[in-house]
Every structure is written in C-alpha cells, then in structure tokens.
Amino acid sequence: MSVSLKAKIAEVFEEPGCDKNQGKSEKERKKGCTKQLNPGAAAGGCAFDGAKIALQPVVDVAHLVHGPIACEGNSWDNRHSASSGSQLYRTGFTTDINELDVIYGGEKRLFKSIREIIEKYDPPAVFVYQTCVTALVGDDIEAVCQRATEKFGKPIIPVNAPGFAGPKNLGNKLGAEALLDYVIGTVEPEFTTPYDINIIGEYNLVGELWQVKPLLDALGIRILSCISGDGRYNEVASAHRAKVNMMVCSKSMINIATKMEQRWGIPYFEGSFYGIGDMSDTLRQIATLLVKQGAPADLLERTERLIAVEEARAWERIAHYKARLTGKRALLITGGVKSWSVVAALQEAGIEIAGTSVKKSTKEDKEKIKEIMGDDAHMIDDMTPREMYNMLRDARADIMLSGGRSQFVALKARMPWLDINQERHHPYGGYEGMVELVREIDRAIYNPVWQQVRIPAPWGDDGETLGAVPTAAIPEVPAPGMGFLADIAAKAMGLEPEEIPV
C-alpha cells in the first residue's frame, strides 16, 4: 500500500460527520479507526468494488479499470442505475494486464488505453480505477493520469482504491475523495439560482431519482448535481455552487457533504425518499435550508401546499392495500439508510416490523430506528441464514424484504420475499414509489402459490410444514374432463355439445 493511499485512508477515518469520531478526543480520533482488516474480512465487496459502484452512475464519462479483466466484472450493472442520456457508463473499459505487464509494469498500457478511449469515444473525462494487482506491482496511476491530462487536454481522474485497502464502504469514501480532489470545484456552472441543491449518495436505482425530481421541479428547486445517479461530469464539477446538500446515505459519501461544508460553506442534512412522512420531511428540510441560504420565504408555503396534495393522493391510493396488510409482519434484512427509512414506510402501510438488520448502519441510523419503533425495536446486528430460516419457519414474519443473497432462505421457508436492495426492478422512492412498494408487498403476500407450496406432500415424507394452509381453504379448480373435450369437439364440428355422442 503506497504512502499516499495510507494517508488518504487515515484522512477518511478522521471523518467529522461520524458519530463515533465526534465522541473521541483529538488524539483518539486520528488512530481509532485505522486498524487494518484481517485477510478475508473484506468478503462481500472490496474497496475497488465500492469505488466503482459509487462513481459508475456518472453516465457520460469513461470508466477504465487498470487491472486484470476479471476485475471488470459488471457488479454495477445489476444495480440498475438508470440514465436519461448517455449510455457510455455501461461500456466496460479495462487495460486487461497480463503476465508481462506484471513483470515490466502496466503504465504504458494504461496510457495507450486512455488515448484509445479519447480517440474513439471523446468523453468529457476518464475515470481510472486502481486494482490490487497494479497497486502491488507499483503502477503510479496518478502520474499517468496527470501526463494524460496534459497530453489530451481532458481531465483524467485517478481513483486510487485497490481492493486490499479495505471493504466496500471504504471504497465508497475513497471514490468520493477522488471527486473532492480532482473534480468538484473545477468547473463553473453557466448560471446559478437561489434554489440550487446537490443530492449526494443517490444512485438513481431503477429511476428513483425521476420520481422525486418532478416534486422539486414543481417547487422551482433545481438539482445542480446528483452524486452520482444519472450524473454528468460537468454537473458534478460545478457542484460547489449549490446552496444546500442533501445526504441520502451517510454510510457511503458523508465525506463529500462534510468537506463541501468546510470548503464552500454549503450546509447539509440527511434525508430519505422512502415513505410518505419521510418524503414530506425531506421536502420541508430542503425548503427550510434554502430559505436560510437566501431563497424567497414563500418557498415554505408552496412546499406545504405541494405536500398536502401529494400526501392526500398517496394515502387515497394506499387505503385499499392498507386494509389488507394491517397486522402483517415483515422481516427487513438490509442496512444503511434503508434500515430506518423503509421501516417508517412499512409502518405507514400498517405492517409490523418483526426485525430490521443494522449490520451496515451508523449509530445515527440505529437511533432513528429506536425513535420510529420505540423501545421494542428488534435490531439484528448479524443474522445467519439459519436464524432467518427459523424465524420465517416459526411464522414470526409474513414476508421478508432483503437483497438477492437472502431470497433463497425465504423461498426454502416457503414464505413471500421482496427485493428491497439495489438489484430490484421497481422504484420505491417518493410518493409514487411508496404506492409501488405497498402494491408489490400485497402482490407477494397474497400470491396463491404460497398456499399451494405449503400443502403437505401426498406421499407423507415432506416433513414438518410451515403454517400449512388447510386444503379446504384453497379454492378448487375443476380439472378438464369429457365435458371440456365435448365442448372443443362441438366447436370444431359446428355442432352443439349435446349433439355429440359420448
């Protein structure tokens, strides 16, 4: 690990926005988080993967991975981060280093790759990602990127986050550091307004940002840049001229919000787009901060009018589902901002929370869970698949909401499951997203397949069943018999069914 990377990691660990760091002395703050991971502790996502995921949704730049071709596994593609314009971010670029590059170094190959990308695609910028192999070999991507910037007249951004540096979350922050060091503040916007905001830590999964943007447009609020969902390089580079920053997921890019506040005096808050109440609170906080930053005071009144209309419309559409879902219990296996924001959304639909995971949640996230759920909040730090299975098997939950990795536990337990993480195919942000979330939960719980799979096998060796539904409770579907065949024959022969001899 190079000295510069060590220094950058230490700087990230001194994050003033971290609740744990705030409670430490100045001396302890500098050394408390620098314990290196044990081998294998970064399983489930390395620092490179985290940096790539955080920056990949900047849609108009070329993302070049300097390393073996296996590192350019499209882990970002299953996150369904959508673009309203350029699709260049979906093209995988890699230097594909080989054994000779490991021996002699891959810097020349990297420079040639940058030149080829610029000649063929002419992007506004190229992001170059360091990987484990090239970092261990000693390739200096910062020097190559600086030389390429001078040669081609385009910003070539080094993202120094090799996988061995730490887990995925650290990679998110190292990717954010690359934006702070080389991108943000380098371009001036064509114009500014008193209503300019940045949204940080939002990846526009399945177009969720587009469910929120019309609400902001109705208030005259402009998203100067989204970091990084559906982002553009020039927008991110001019983000320093915004009036307010909204932090969507503090677990990933909090360092951008805190350092922009230090450098340019831009206040920030953490909000959520999930759930009716949280969406309304987010709009209020944006309006309040903008007014404090100089926006006209009538923005507050217009915001309340919009909230009243949108909430009434959403509650009216949810009423039908709420009557069917009240009293149902959900097990929520996720993390970060979803550990509390989705809890609030589910409670609005009358669903009880059997438990919510907090493995990737901050101290502030946990406090918000206690505030929402009260003293009986069942927070799960690390639930094993066997524990998930037993919880579902004992019918302590009617549905599990999680990522794709946990779906087979629910299916084995013969219980409904809904994808709530980044691989999902339905947007759940904003008022429209809340209606969509409730609709999908209703479809999952009341799908008739669960009644069918819980029936004991007729040969009797199916073992103990999970809350098996009595056969009498399942509507019978008559099997097609001779009468059915007679109808078909009659139609084919142009006769009435009773005229066909049996």
Automatic annotation (TrEMBL):
Q: Which PROSITE patterns match?
A: NITROGENASE_1_1, NITROGENASE_1_2
Q: Which residues form the signal peptide?
A: none
| Ranges annotated as spanning the membrane | none
Write down the Gene3D superfamilies for this protein, in alphabetical order.
Nitrogenase MoFe cofactor biosynthesis protein NifE, C-terminal, Nitrogenase molybdenum iron protein domain
KW DNA-binding (keyword) present? no
Domain named Nitrogenase/oxidoreductase component: residues: 46-445
- Matching NCBIfam families: nifE
Q: Which family does it belong to?
A: Belongs to the NifD/NifK/NifE/NifN family.
Protein name, per record:
Nitrogenase iron-molybdenum cofactor biosynthesis protein NifE
Native species: Polaromonas hydrogenivorans
Gene this chain is encoded by: nifE
